[in-house]
Specification:
The structure is a single chain. This protein is an alpha+beta fold. 28% of the residues lie in helices and 20% in strands. The protein is built from 18 helices and 26 strands. The strands form 4 sheets. Strands 1, 2, 14, 15, 18, 19, 22, 23, 24, 25 and 26 form an 11-stranded mixed β-sheet that branches. A 9-stranded mixed β-sheet has the order 8-7-9-10-3-16-17-20-21, sandwiched between helices. Strands 5-4-6 form a 3-stranded antiparallel β-sheet. α8 crosses α9.
């Protein structure tokens, strides 16, 4: 799809806009002239079901709110944290001790190369490529007999000249998919050991010297909230469980998270629960863990690179599910890392979608206000779903892949996400694009019942992909969390129709409310933007779990969303600031930039022409701001697609 450059124009209305690639702005009208929502133009598309009727924004909630006791802390990813393997995130060149790991090591040993040469890891059509790689590495091994850093290995590889048996290294590098690259590095990786060979080096963290203190503070905030759960049990320091189930390599980030949460003040333990572990326990075959790691995660030889952590995983498998459940019952917080939400789904739900004993234990602990559940990136996205709290309502899906422009062009597909690089292998499922919007229709873990969750939100321009998924699945609400930011959720009063959500961190929390007039041809939503200190309140007059009604009748008939700005914020007066817009709008943080500048301007709306789409953003109420310029506001987003 070709996107035009944006020009600035002044026009009187959307109808009058005829210049491609333009951003049109309109002065703020008087209240009596406030624009009405655009009527739906696609009558064939079913209207949103009448369950929740979201009412207008209010400056204060409709009732006195109870003091929140948060159950979920959902982070948007992008936590740039100072560590021995990421010193670019440090305030200064931090000196870590001799046992700190600074990077992975790789060795072109004949035993490793022979194992790679015979491994069944490339498809039959690409076996020649695998053998060419072996020839190239054998050539390099003759000259390099010591372990190499990742940067050294890549440099030697890509600079290798062509031979009679194989093309040059750069050509081979470019031909590999992401999956195949991961396989190569896994087979060549060796443990990073201390100088005496007695200890495996571990990644060290320094929260105090982290450049982005918003990122560091989110770890501390999670520990503080978990400490409230611990204090109710008579403990001062909270006990945390850290889960790396979202990772392709579930061992690689263990040391990082353990050190980060210890520095934040918690007692923390790795819970080695993964899709591979769950599969091994179900098969009652713990010795097959390496094969399950390869088949499910695409992770190889981890038992050799992380022998100590693998031993813990094997012990957990042998101890079985009851031991994992006991650890969850004793914990005050459990945190899920980023990566691939589908892997965490498989770790905690069986193939038929039913909850594992571990997930059931998490449900029970959250219901009793004894456990704080946190996640970042994929660890947040996987929480979507209402299987636990409201199974009688229409399913809330879990998003799994895609970007905004592929979503607008190709719609949403229920099914597995294509893996990165599948196009190079000519193995994308159903010939889907690698950026196709995909989702799990039945939902994820089901701890967040109000709507779809999305992450890395403004930074990757995901507003349109979220709205396309809402329209395709008729999901009324969706929420996006920016990087280095979090949404806190109190589910304690959900049964009586009240949920409080609060924003924390550097960026924004975004809520999208699909409007009844929305259609495939004209997507339409109210959007809410929160920054640190703001709260948004979900209220339902009809209790979601009323047992006297049939499933079709048992829905909240009157739901309100109320945005409550932080006490330090006051309504903005009209400002004659220019609008800032970059194309494409749903790329990087371009949408957020336009949205913020519209809030600060004296214009009522802005329309962006990016053929074949018209994208219109309109004010819908006053914007509020604090002394630092943090904003709270509601707007209306409309995306008009070409007629089918």
């Amino acid at each position: 799809m070709r996107l035009s450059c944006i020009k600035l124009l002044l026009v009187s209305s959307l109808v009058g806009l005829a210049v491609p690639g333009a951003l049109a702005v309109e002065p703020q009208p008087e209240p009596a002239q406030k624009e009405q929502p655009l009527a739906a133009a696609d009558a064939a598309t079913p209207a949103v079901q009448p369950e929740p009727s979201i009412l207008d924004i209010a400056s204060t909630p409709t009732q006195v709110l109870p003091q929140p006791e948060y159950d979920l802390m959902l982070m948007g990813g992008g936590l740039a944290t100072c560590s021995s393997m990421s010193n670019r995130s440090c305030l200064e060149q931090t000196q870590f001790n001799a046992l700190a790991k600074t990077g992975n090591l790789y060795w072109l040993q004949q035993s490793l190369l022979q194992n790679f040469a015979t491994a069944e890891v490339f498809s039959a059509e690409r076996k020649t490529l695998q053998q060419q790689l072996v020839q190239l590495f054998n050539q390099l091994a003759a000259e390099h007999t010591a372990p190499l850093t990742e940067q050294q290995l890549i440099g030697l590889w890509r600079a290798a000249p062509a031979t009679e048996q194989a093309p040059d290294g750069e050509t081979l590098w470019q031909q590999l998919s992401e999956r195949e690259l991961n396989v190569v590095f896994d087979y060549l990786e060796v443990p990073t050991l201390s100088s005496d060979g007695k200890y495996r080096l571990t990644e060290h963290v320094d929260l105090a010297k982290t450049q982005d203190q918003h990122s560091a503070e989110l770890y501390r905030e999670f520990v503080r909230l978990a400490a409230m759960k611990a204090s109710n049990k008579g403990r001062s320091a909270p006990k945390l469980l850290m889960v790396t189930a979202s990772s392709r390599d579930p061992f690689a980030a263990v040391d990082f998270y353990l050190d980060a949460f210890r520095q934040a003040g918690a007692e923390v333990e790795w819970l080695p629960l993964t899709a591979a572990l769950q599969a091994a326990m179900q098969a009652q075959n713990c010795q097959a863990l390496p094969q399950f790691l390869a088949d499910i995660h695409g992770s190889y030889r981890r038992e050799q690179v992380y022998a100590d952590l693998y031993a813990l995983k094997l012990q957990a498998c042998q101890a079985g599910s009851k031991a994992l459940v006991a650890k969850i019952a004793a914990a005050d917080g459990i945190f899920f890392n980023g990566g691939d939400q589908s892997l965490t789904y498989q770790a905690l739900r069986f193939t038929d979608g039913s909850a594992s004993p571990e997930l059931t234990a998490i449900f029970g602990a959250v219901a009793n206000k004894q456990l704080l559940v946190g996640g970042t990136s994929a660890g947040t996205a996987v929480m979507s779903g209402n299987q636990w709290l409201a199974p009688q309502l229409a399913a809330v899906p879990m998003i799994s892949n895609g970007d905004s422009y592929h979503a607008l062009q190709y719609g949403a597909v229920a099914g597995p996400a294509p893996w990165p690089g599948c196009r190079k292998e000519n193995r994308c499922p159903d010939n889907l694009s690698e950026r196709q919007l995909t989702y799990t229709a039945t939902g994820g873990l089901g701890l967040f019942p109000l709507g779809v969750l999305d992450t890395h939100f403004a930074e990757r321009g995901r507003q349109a992909r979220l709205l396309v998924l809402q329209q395709a699945t008729q999901t009324r609400l969706a929420f996006g969390v920016d990087e280095a930011s979090a949404m806190l959720v109190d589910l304690g009063h959900y049964a009586t129709g009240l949920v409080q959500m609060a924003a924390r961190g550097a960026g924004e929390v975004y809520a999208s409310e699909l409007l009844p007039e929305s259609s495939k041809a004209q997507l339409l939503a109210h959007t809410y933007t929160l920054t640190a200190g703001d709260t948004i309140v979900w209220q339902a007059e009809t209790e979601p779990q009323a047992e006297t009604l049939s499933p079709a009748e048992n829905v909240p008939q009157n739901v309100t969303l109320t945005l409550v700005p932080a006490a330090a914020k006051t309504p903005l007066t009209e400002q004659a600031e220019p609008l800032h817009s970059k194309s494409p709008l749903f790329s990087r943080d371009h949408y957020r930039s336009l949205s913020r500048s519209l809030c600060r301007s004296n214009f009522h709306s802005a329309t962006v022409s990016e053929p074949p789409y018209l994208i219109r953003l309109s004010k819908d109420g006053a914007c509020s701001a604090d002394a630092e310029g943090n904003l709270s506001y509601r707007q209306q987003l409309r995306i008009i697609s070409p007629a089918e």
